[in-house]
Amino acid sequence: MVDVMGRTPEEFEEMLNAQIAEAERKAAAMNEFVATLESARVTGFDSRREVEVEVNQEGTMTRVSIDDEALEGSTSDLEEAIMEAYSDAGKNMSRFLREQGHRQFGGGDSAMGEFVDQISSRLEQLGR
């Protein structure tokens, strides 16, 4: 009988099959995570809830909704409300991203954790 790395050929084949299955599981989780990110849209509001901003996974503003009450104030008040809502949307997207990352990867994959942390940190800075 021939040993392969201290294992029988059958044991070695079983080990390889288990590693392949694990790699396929991780790839499927990554694909699902990427698909979730690509379609993600999250909103945020100013403190008076007169302005609503929607952002995508990159932090790009995709929609702004302004109530009539917000238009009654000064231009600088409106600008401040938009930036406040944008900041809130960034924080909400960051939270969503972290939740999805934890759900998909359980926080155990350090490369994925670093990736999520990096994106989340940038999203947390929106509107500042």
TrEMBL record:
Alphabetical list of InterPro entries matching this protein: YbaB-like_sf, YbaB/EbfC
GO molecular function: DNA binding
Protein name listed in UniProt: YbaB/EbfC DNA-binding family protein
Top-level lineage group: Bacteria
